Each structure stands twice: as C-alpha cells, then as structure tokens.
Amino acid sequence: MTQPDLPDVSGLSIGILGGTGDQGKGLARRFALAGHEVLIGSRSVGRAQEAAASLAPTVRGGENAQVARDADVVIVAVPWDGHKATLESLAGDLAGKIVVDCVNPLGFDKQGAYALPVEEGSAAQQAAAVLGESRVVAAFHHVSAVLLLDPGVDRIELDVLVLGDDREATDIVRALAARIPGARGVYGGRLRNAHQVEALTANLISINRRYKAHAGLRITDV
C-alpha cells in the first residue's frame, strides 16, 4: 500500500512519557534514528537524562510536565497502574496536543497475560476522558520493545494500527509510524475500538512465548 496522502511529519518533536521503560526507550531510539528531536519524560529527571544519554545525541531527558509542554506530539508509554494519575497531573500541559496512547492494560498470572477490564472501555478512552482538551490517538501497541532496541535490526516489518476520532491527528500518527523503516501506519477505526487492539497484546505475548518470537501484525489487501 502506498500512502501518498500522509502529511510531512519530519520536523515534529516527539515526547515520550514513561520513556525510561523499554517500550518508551525503543520508540525514542527509532524516532531519533529517523531524524526527530526526541524528549524522554519521567517523574525523575535523573532517570530521564540517563535514559536519553544511552540512546542518541538528539534525545534529551526531562521531567514529565516539561516534556509534555515542549514536544509537538506526546506518546504515553507509562505503566498501566499509573496511567490515569499521570495523565490527570499533566492535563493542562497536554492541552491542544496530539497524545498517542500505547498503553496495554494487562494482568499476568500462571496462565500468562490477559486483558484487564477498564471502566472507560480502554486505556485510550480513559486518556480521552481525562485529557478533554487533547487530541487522543491510540497506536504502537504491538511493536516489540526488543526489536526497537536491537541495533542489529534495521527494519521492523509490521503494521501499526492507529485509532482515533480526529482524522488529521490519526493521519499524523500514521505518518510517524511510517518513519520507522519497515513499518506502516494503518487506520484501525474510532477510539471506541481501542479495547480489542490493546487486548490483542495478550495474544501476541502468548505467541511470542510459544514460538520464541517477537511477533507483530500485517494487514493484508491494503
């Protein structure tokens, strides 16, 4: 699928809340390699700066609120148990921003990973409820942190499902996904459909454990 309709996003700076975790660092690394200025946010400035220093000169670390204010687009990659409280504390800083939620509400027991119920329907819908003045998009749920961080992996062959109610915002996030070599951003529906996308991560974890893989998704015939 060619995507000539996608906007030019090469000049956008990208902030990552929870950027000290593997998923956040992996996305930060790939966007930095694509030429973006990347800001890693954390409650601890020291941890954010340490994570940034381990990645690339174009990555810098700071406190969550500062990153939320400074970045053009903000990705939320915080742990699920701190998701709502973190966003509530940053609602003012994120007003008017495109906020990309990639959080998967999952539990783990002896049988493996499973999807957790969310009162609002999904993590992305919770973000939208908390961030009433932001443009919330759901994306990047199924990208392997191991592959993102692996310097031996030049291309990540997968499709990123992008969901949201704002056409311009979802197009921008689709274009950002395409900045990662091998990846495509594919529109996956309205934000109300984010639950099953988040929950599918539990299935991918099961696949990875059975087959010793880092599985992703490809959408056929588009």
UniProtKB/TrEMBL annotation:
One cellular-component annotation, GO: plasma membrane
Taxonomic lineage: Bacteria, Bacillati, Actinomycetota, Actinomycetes, Streptosporangiales
Domain of life: Bacteria
Domain Pyrroline-5-carboxylate reductase catalytic N-terminal, residue spans: 14-105
SUPFAM superfamilies: NAD(P)-binding Rossmann-fold domains
Keyword tags: Oxidoreductase
Species assigned in the record: Sinosporangium album
Stored Pfam families: F420_oxidored
Protein name per the record: Pyrroline-5-carboxylate reductase catalytic N-terminal domain-containing protein
Gene Ontology MF terms in the entry: coenzyme F420 binding; cupric reductase (NADH) activity; ferric-chelate reductase (NADPH) activity; NADP binding; oxidoreductase activity, acting on NAD(P)H
GO annotation, biological process: copper ion import; NADPH regeneration
PANTHER family: DUDULIN-RELATED, F420-DEPENDENT NADP REDUCTASE
